[in-house]
Amino acid sequence: MARVDVKVVLLGQQSVGKSCLVDRYINNAFEAKQKNTIGAAFAAKKVKVSSGRVVSLGVWDTAGAERFESLSRMYYNGARAAVVCFDPADRLSFEKAMFWVRELRDTQPECRVYLAMTKCDLLEDPPALGPADALVAAPGSDDSAGAESAASKQSASSTSLASHSGLRREVSDEDVASFAKSVALPRYGPAKVFPTSARHGRGVAALFQEIGEDLSAGLSAEEPRPPEGNMPSALN
Protein backbone atom coordinates (compact mmCIF):
# COMPACT_ATOMS: atom_id res chain seq x y z
CA MET A 1 0.00 0.00 0.00
CA ALA A 2 1.60 3.25 -1.12
CA ARG A 3 1.04 6.57 0.61
CA VAL A 4 -0.03 9.11 -1.96
CA ASP A 5 0.23 12.91 -1.69
CA VAL A 6 -1.17 13.72 -5.13
CA LYS A 7 -3.55 11.55 -7.13
CA VAL A 8 -2.95 11.74 -10.88
CA VAL A 9 -5.24 10.12 -13.44
CA LEU A 10 -4.46 9.46 -17.11
CA LEU A 11 -7.37 9.77 -19.53
CA GLY A 12 -7.61 9.21 -23.26
CA GLN A 13 -8.66 6.98 -26.10
CA GLN A 14 -7.64 3.34 -26.17
CA SER A 15 -4.14 2.76 -27.60
CA VAL A 16 -3.28 6.47 -27.49
CA GLY A 17 -0.18 5.66 -25.43
CA LYS A 18 -1.23 6.25 -21.82
CA SER A 19 0.35 3.08 -20.50
CA CYS A 20 3.56 3.68 -22.43
CA LEU A 21 3.87 7.06 -20.71
CA VAL A 22 3.39 5.47 -17.30
CA ASP A 23 5.77 2.61 -18.06
CA ARG A 24 8.45 5.03 -19.20
CA TYR A 25 8.02 7.24 -16.14
CA ILE A 26 7.70 4.55 -13.47
CA ASN A 27 9.99 1.85 -14.89
CA ASN A 28 12.11 3.76 -17.41
CA ALA A 29 11.01 1.17 -19.97
CA PHE A 30 9.18 1.05 -23.28
CA GLU A 31 7.13 -1.77 -24.77
CA ALA A 32 5.41 -0.98 -28.06
CA LYS A 33 2.78 -3.67 -27.53
CA GLN A 34 0.94 -3.16 -24.26
CA LYS A 35 -1.91 -5.22 -22.87
CA ASN A 36 -5.22 -3.39 -22.82
CA THR A 37 -5.97 -1.93 -19.41
CA ILE A 38 -9.11 -3.30 -17.76
CA GLY A 39 -10.51 -0.82 -15.27
CA ALA A 40 -7.31 0.90 -14.19
CA ALA A 41 -3.71 0.21 -13.21
CA PHE A 42 -2.03 1.94 -10.28
CA ALA A 43 1.59 2.92 -9.71
CA ALA A 44 3.32 5.37 -7.38
CA LYS A 45 6.57 7.30 -7.59
CA LYS A 46 8.29 9.90 -5.45
CA VAL A 47 9.43 13.14 -7.04
CA LYS A 48 11.65 15.78 -5.45
CA VAL A 49 10.42 19.30 -6.21
CA SER A 50 12.37 22.54 -6.25
CA SER A 51 11.42 23.37 -2.65
CA GLY A 52 13.25 20.24 -1.55
CA ARG A 53 10.08 18.41 -0.64
CA VAL A 54 9.56 14.84 -1.78
CA VAL A 55 6.05 14.30 -3.11
CA SER A 56 4.48 10.91 -3.76
CA LEU A 57 2.49 10.80 -7.00
CA GLY A 58 -0.16 8.11 -7.25
CA VAL A 59 -0.72 7.50 -10.96
CA TRP A 60 -3.90 5.83 -12.22
CA ASP A 61 -3.78 4.59 -15.81
CA THR A 62 -7.40 4.20 -16.89
CA ALA A 63 -8.88 2.01 -19.61
CA GLY A 64 -9.55 3.84 -22.84
CA ALA A 65 -12.08 1.45 -24.40
CA GLU A 66 -15.65 2.73 -24.52
CA ARG A 67 -16.99 -0.29 -22.66
CA PHE A 68 -14.90 0.73 -19.64
CA GLU A 69 -15.81 4.42 -19.60
CA SER A 70 -18.13 4.09 -16.62
CA LEU A 71 -15.36 2.33 -14.68
CA SER A 72 -12.84 5.03 -15.56
CA ARG A 73 -15.08 7.65 -13.97
CA MET A 74 -14.70 5.85 -10.65
CA TYR A 75 -10.93 6.17 -10.73
CA TYR A 76 -10.66 9.90 -11.33
CA ASN A 77 -12.76 10.69 -8.29
CA GLY A 78 -10.58 12.78 -5.98
CA ALA A 79 -7.84 13.35 -8.56
CA ARG A 80 -5.88 16.58 -8.26
CA ALA A 81 -4.29 16.30 -11.68
CA ALA A 82 -5.44 14.71 -14.93
CA VAL A 83 -3.08 13.94 -17.81
CA VAL A 84 -5.34 13.97 -20.87
CA CYS A 85 -3.61 12.20 -23.75
CA PHE A 86 -4.05 12.48 -27.50
CA ASP A 87 -2.09 11.52 -30.60
CA PRO A 88 -1.57 14.59 -32.83
CA ALA A 89 -1.72 12.29 -35.87
CA ASP A 90 -5.17 11.01 -34.87
CA ARG A 91 -8.01 13.54 -34.87
CA LEU A 92 -10.42 11.13 -33.19
CA SER A 93 -8.10 10.79 -30.20
CA PHE A 94 -8.11 14.59 -29.88
CA GLU A 95 -11.91 14.68 -29.93
CA LYS A 96 -11.96 11.93 -27.32
CA ALA A 97 -9.60 14.00 -25.17
CA MET A 98 -12.12 16.83 -25.25
CA PHE A 99 -14.82 14.36 -24.21
CA TRP A 100 -12.79 13.24 -21.20
CA VAL A 101 -12.22 16.80 -20.06
CA ARG A 102 -15.97 17.43 -20.14
CA GLU A 103 -16.54 14.26 -18.13
CA LEU A 104 -13.86 15.25 -15.63
CA ARG A 105 -15.25 18.73 -15.13
CA ASP A 106 -18.67 17.32 -14.23
CA THR A 107 -17.32 15.63 -11.10
CA GLN A 108 -13.88 17.18 -10.44
CA PRO A 109 -14.20 20.85 -11.46
CA GLU A 110 -10.99 21.91 -9.68
CA CYS A 111 -8.80 19.12 -11.04
CA ARG A 112 -5.85 20.54 -12.98
CA VAL A 113 -5.58 19.33 -16.56
CA TYR A 114 -2.28 18.66 -18.34
CA LEU A 115 -2.34 17.84 -22.06
CA ALA A 116 0.05 15.16 -23.30
CA MET A 117 0.71 14.91 -27.02
CA THR A 118 1.79 11.29 -27.44
CA LYS A 119 3.87 9.48 -30.07
CA CYS A 120 5.48 12.70 -31.28
CA ASP A 121 8.48 10.74 -32.59
CA LEU A 122 6.20 9.26 -35.28
CA LEU A 123 5.28 12.60 -36.81
CA GLU A 124 6.47 13.79 -40.20
CA ASP A 125 7.61 17.02 -38.55
CA PRO A 126 8.08 16.20 -34.84
CA PRO A 127 8.05 19.09 -32.35
CA ALA A 128 11.12 20.00 -30.35
CA LEU A 129 11.12 17.68 -27.37
CA GLY A 130 14.32 18.82 -25.69
CA PRO A 131 17.00 16.51 -24.26
CA ALA A 132 16.29 13.00 -23.07
CA ASP A 133 14.53 12.83 -19.72
CA ALA A 134 16.78 12.35 -16.71
CA LEU A 135 14.70 9.92 -14.69
CA VAL A 136 16.63 9.95 -11.45
CA ALA A 137 14.68 8.70 -8.45
CA ALA A 138 13.90 10.97 -5.53
CA PRO A 139 15.94 10.38 -2.35
CA GLY A 140 14.48 7.61 -0.26
CA SER A 141 12.40 6.12 -3.06
CA ASP A 142 12.44 2.38 -3.63
CA ASP A 143 13.98 2.70 -7.09
CA SER A 144 16.85 5.00 -6.16
CA ALA A 145 19.40 2.22 -6.62
CA GLY A 146 20.37 1.92 -10.24
CA ALA A 147 18.48 5.00 -11.35
CA GLU A 148 21.63 6.68 -12.61
CA SER A 149 22.47 3.64 -14.72
CA ALA A 150 18.95 3.52 -16.13
CA ALA A 151 19.02 7.20 -16.96
CA SER A 152 22.31 6.89 -18.83
CA LYS A 153 20.98 3.95 -20.85
CA GLN A 154 17.90 5.95 -21.72
CA SER A 155 19.98 8.94 -22.76
CA ALA A 156 22.09 6.78 -25.04
CA SER A 157 19.01 5.41 -26.78
CA SER A 158 17.24 8.78 -27.02
CA THR A 159 19.68 11.08 -28.78
CA SER A 160 17.68 11.34 -31.99
CA LEU A 161 14.13 11.19 -33.31
CA ALA A 162 15.39 10.32 -36.78
CA SER A 163 13.48 7.02 -36.76
CA HIS A 164 10.08 8.72 -36.95
CA SER A 165 7.79 7.21 -39.60
CA GLY A 166 6.46 10.45 -41.05
CA LEU A 167 2.81 10.56 -39.99
CA ARG A 168 1.03 13.77 -40.83
CA ARG A 169 -0.52 15.80 -38.06
CA GLU A 170 -4.30 15.92 -37.88
CA VAL A 171 -4.25 18.26 -34.87
CA SER A 172 -2.63 21.66 -35.37
CA ASP A 173 -0.80 23.78 -32.83
CA GLU A 174 -3.73 26.20 -33.02
CA ASP A 175 -6.15 23.38 -32.15
CA VAL A 176 -4.04 22.44 -29.15
CA ALA A 177 -3.70 26.03 -27.94
CA SER A 178 -7.45 26.55 -28.23
CA PHE A 179 -8.11 23.34 -26.31
CA ALA A 180 -5.67 24.36 -23.58
CA LYS A 181 -7.46 27.69 -23.17
CA SER A 182 -10.88 26.04 -23.10
CA VAL A 183 -9.94 23.95 -20.05
CA ALA A 184 -8.33 26.84 -18.16
CA LEU A 185 -8.99 27.26 -14.46
CA PRO A 186 -9.19 30.87 -13.21
CA ARG A 187 -6.38 30.38 -10.70
CA TYR A 188 -3.99 28.63 -13.08
CA GLY A 189 -4.68 29.75 -16.64
CA PRO A 190 -4.64 27.46 -19.70
CA ALA A 191 -3.70 23.82 -19.38
CA LYS A 192 0.00 23.09 -19.85
CA VAL A 193 0.88 21.13 -22.99
CA PHE A 194 3.66 18.52 -23.17
CA PRO A 195 4.81 16.96 -26.46
CA THR A 196 6.09 13.50 -25.51
CA SER A 197 7.76 10.41 -26.88
CA ALA A 198 7.59 7.41 -24.57
CA ARG A 199 9.70 5.42 -27.04
CA HIS A 200 12.59 7.87 -26.88
CA GLY A 201 12.03 9.04 -23.32
CA ARG A 202 11.32 12.67 -24.17
CA GLY A 203 9.01 14.99 -22.25
CA VAL A 204 7.67 12.28 -19.94
CA ALA A 205 9.61 13.03 -16.77
CA ALA A 206 9.13 16.76 -17.36
CA LEU A 207 5.36 16.26 -17.40
CA PHE A 208 5.20 14.50 -14.06
CA GLN A 209 7.83 16.76 -12.52
CA GLU A 210 5.66 19.75 -13.44
CA ILE A 211 2.66 18.14 -11.78
CA GLY A 212 4.67 17.62 -8.61
CA GLU A 213 5.92 21.21 -8.66
CA ASP A 214 2.47 22.68 -9.29
CA LEU A 215 0.61 20.69 -6.67
CA SER A 216 3.20 20.39 -3.90
CA ALA A 217 2.56 23.93 -2.61
CA GLY A 218 -0.99 23.09 -1.61
CA LEU A 219 0.13 20.12 0.48
CA SER A 220 1.93 22.07 3.22
CA ALA A 221 -1.15 22.63 5.36
CA GLU A 222 -2.71 19.24 4.66
CA GLU A 223 -2.23 15.75 5.96
CA PRO A 224 -0.91 13.19 3.47
CA ARG A 225 -3.62 11.37 1.60
CA PRO A 226 -4.46 7.81 2.67
CA PRO A 227 -3.03 4.87 0.74
CA GLU A 228 -4.59 4.44 -2.68
CA GLY A 229 -4.01 0.71 -2.76
CA ASN A 230 -2.42 -1.44 -5.42
CA MET A 231 -3.81 -2.42 -8.77
CA PRO A 232 -2.47 -4.98 -11.27
CA SER A 233 0.16 -3.42 -13.48
CA ALA A 234 -1.68 -4.27 -16.69
CA LEU A 235 -0.74 -1.16 -18.63
CA ASN A 236 -2.66 -0.08 -21.75
From TrEMBL:
<feature type="region of interest" description="Disordered">
    <location>
        <begin position="216"/>
        <end position="236"/>
    </location>
</feature>
<keyword id="KW-0547">Nucleotide-binding</keyword>
<dbReference type="GO" id="GO:0005525">
    <property type="term" value="F:GTP binding"/>
</dbReference>
<feature type="region of interest" description="Disordered">
    <location>
        <begin position="133"/>
        <end position="167"/>
    </location>
</feature>
<dbReference type="InterPro" id="IPR001806">
    <property type="entry name" value="Small_GTPase"/>
</dbReference>
<feature type="compositionally biased region" description="Low complexity">
    <location>
        <begin position="137"/>
        <end position="165"/>
    </location>
</feature>
<dbReference type="GO" id="GO:0003924">
    <property type="term" value="F:GTPase activity"/>
</dbReference>
<dbReference type="InterPro" id="IPR027417">
    <property type="entry name" value="P-loop_NTPase"/>
</dbReference>
<dbReference type="InterPro" id="IPR005225">
    <property type="entry name" value="Small_GTP-bd"/>
</dbReference>
<protein>
    <submittedName>
        <fullName>Uncharacterized protein</fullName>
    </submittedName>
</protein>
<dbReference type="Pfam" id="PF00071">
    <property type="entry name" value="Ras"/>
</dbReference>
